[in-house]
């Protein structure tokens, strides 16, 4: 009779397998690239794929191996600075805007770096008496890697989208879903609700603590806004009518000569959209994506409604599918994804990150991570807006309804879309 392994050994084995699976997926996302694609950086916001592969490795090396593995030797001393993103406590770092200036290290050298660190992490977990604090850091590191997997797809899309040849990342045909039904509104009673991360399961520090809020009655659209609906806004002169735009948004629009969502292109009289599946005729039924906060807010103003606040959107995401929802409604689960582009405007989450009206800041009682990871989230709580709901590029086991994504109001290279809200009088 085989004796059961101690629970600690089973847990470590599970973590090792999870670690290797997540790390392998990052390199798999780059399998369709050519070596020339790995170093391109069209704008400061976009990092070269090679840098993502190096930085996620740097995280495990600096946060876990250097600090907790006795006699650990770094793969390359220069990588400590080169692949540091913004952690001032970890020392000097290379400027984000200059990541694409470096032809070295080569792609092969970065892959070797990943292999070296992966072996050291697995050996460390297998042989050392690892305590819970280190395992907690490992879990943060894995979710950090999954964040960068989404960023990889965002950045790869921007890199390829800047090329007039419209290179194809995935040559499999996009499996579109027709959604022609009239949008429905889901209403919520006035009352006390709970928002924020639950105690069980992983969550970042900015999702905590879970807390009660009082909300007046409101409604949220069951559908995200489609390309067709947004095209109607454009055709009605939406980008030429200042009354719909925030002052800063109008300045951004006029200064940058913005006239349509990112990746839309008009050829002759026809609209097209660049996707990771290539340049395709604009499908009016697909969710509009790659819009800024300024554009989302202007569209809502044009429709005579508003964007939701983040608490309303989290309540909606966590609610049942019943049309009228009360504060104690049960959690819903609904996640339609297909390939590398949003296709289902009727999905409740997992298609496009939806902008909210809420400025990104800490919850009441917010406590940031300690040590070097103190800089992970808290330092960005200024001049950014919260998005919720996940997208097609978000790994499914990384997402949760309490997740708080955040971007500056002009940014739109992420898979960002629009879900509308309104007050109930």
TrEMBL record:
Tell me which UniProt keywords the record has, alphabetically: Iron, Oxidoreductase
SUPFAM superfamilies from the UniProt entry: C-type lectin-like (SSF56436)
- The UniProt record lists the keyword Oxidoreductase: yes
Name its pathway: Amino-acid biosynthesis; ergothioneine biosynthesis
Q: Name one GO biological process term.
A: ergothioneine biosynthetic process
**Sulfatase-modifying factor enzyme-like domain span:** 185-422
> Would the keyword Oxidoreductase turn up in this protein's UniProt record?
yes
Where in the numbering of this chain does the DinB-like domain appear?
21-151
Please indicate which superkingdom the organism of origin belongs to: Bacteria
User: How is this protein named in the record?
Assistant: Sulfatase maturase
User: Which species is listed as the source?
Assistant: Pseudoalteromonas luteoviolacea S4054
């Amino acid at each position: 009779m085989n004796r059961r392994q101690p629970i600690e050994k089973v847990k470590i084995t599970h973590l090792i397998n999870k670690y290797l699976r997540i790390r392998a997926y990052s390199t798999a996302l780059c399998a369709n690239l050519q070596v020339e694609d790995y170093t391109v950086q069209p704008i400061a916001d976009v990092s070269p794929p090679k840098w993502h592969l190096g930085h996620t490795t740097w995280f495990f090396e600096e946060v876990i191996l250097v600090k907790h593995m006795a006699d650990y030797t770094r793969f390359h001393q220069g990588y400590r600075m080169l692949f540091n993103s913004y952690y001032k406590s970890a020392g000097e770092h290379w400027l984000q805007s200059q990541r694409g200036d470096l032809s070295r290290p080569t792609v092969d050298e970065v892959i070797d770096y990943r292999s070296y660190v992966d072996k050291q992490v697995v050996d460390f977990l297998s042989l050392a008496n690892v305590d819970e604090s280190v395992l907690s850091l490992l879990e943060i590191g894995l979710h950090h890697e999954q964040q960068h997997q989404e960023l990889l797809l965002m950045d790869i899309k921007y890199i390829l989208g800047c090329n007039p040849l419209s290179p194809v990342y995935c040559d499999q045909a996009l499996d579109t879903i027709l959604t022609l039904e009239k949008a429905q509104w889901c209403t919520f009673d006035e009352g006390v609700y709970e928002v924020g991360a639950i105690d069980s399961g992983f969550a970042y520090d900015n999702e905590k603590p879970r807390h009660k809020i009082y909300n007046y009655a409101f409604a949220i659209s069951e559908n995200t806004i489609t390309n067709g609906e947004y095209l109607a806004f454009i055709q009605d002169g939406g980008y030429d009518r200042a009354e719909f735009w925030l002052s800063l948004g109008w300045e951004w629009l006029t200064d940058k000569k913005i006239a349509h969502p990112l990746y839309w292109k008009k050829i002759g009289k026809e609209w097209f959209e660049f996707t990771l599946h290539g340049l395709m005729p604009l499908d009016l039924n697909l969710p509009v994506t790659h819009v800024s906060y300024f554009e989302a807010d202007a569209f809502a103003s044009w429709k005579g409604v508003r964007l939701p606040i983040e608490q309303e959107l989290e309540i909606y995401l966590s609610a049942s599918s019943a049309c009228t929802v009360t504060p104690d409604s049960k959690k819903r689960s609904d996640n339609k994804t297909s390939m590398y582009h949003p296709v289902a405007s009727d999905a409740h989450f997992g298609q496009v990150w939806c902008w909210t009206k809420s400025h990104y800041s800490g919850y009441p009682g917010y406590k940031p991570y300690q040590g070097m990871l103190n800089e992970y989230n808290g330092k960005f709580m200024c001049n950014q807006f919260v998005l919720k709901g996940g997208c097609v590029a978000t790994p499914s086991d990384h997402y949760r309804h309490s997740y708080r994504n955040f971007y500056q109001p002009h940014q739109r290279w992420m898979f960002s879309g629009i879900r509308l809200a309104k007050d109930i009088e």
